[in-house]
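Curious: can you check?
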Amino acid sequence: MEVISYVAVAVGLIIGLGACGACVGIGVMGSKYLEAAARQPELMNELQTKMFLLVGLIDAAFIIGVGIALWFTTANPFLSQIAGAVAAAGGVK
């Protein structure tokens, strides 16, 4: 297996697990918002504002992860270190 293929696997894991985490987090938060709005309808506007703020923060964390993953695919700072370690170990079989 080539060294660059490990980078592709890592990028896939970063993006995939980040997306799953963001989806689960937003889903749990949305369900709790609906529960709270059903219990106290007079607080619905305040809760909705806070919920949308947190949705933006959760999505921002995922987008930052995607940006870092795409940076690894184009300008991987660890690629030379990995290649040196593989060369020192006698190559990849």
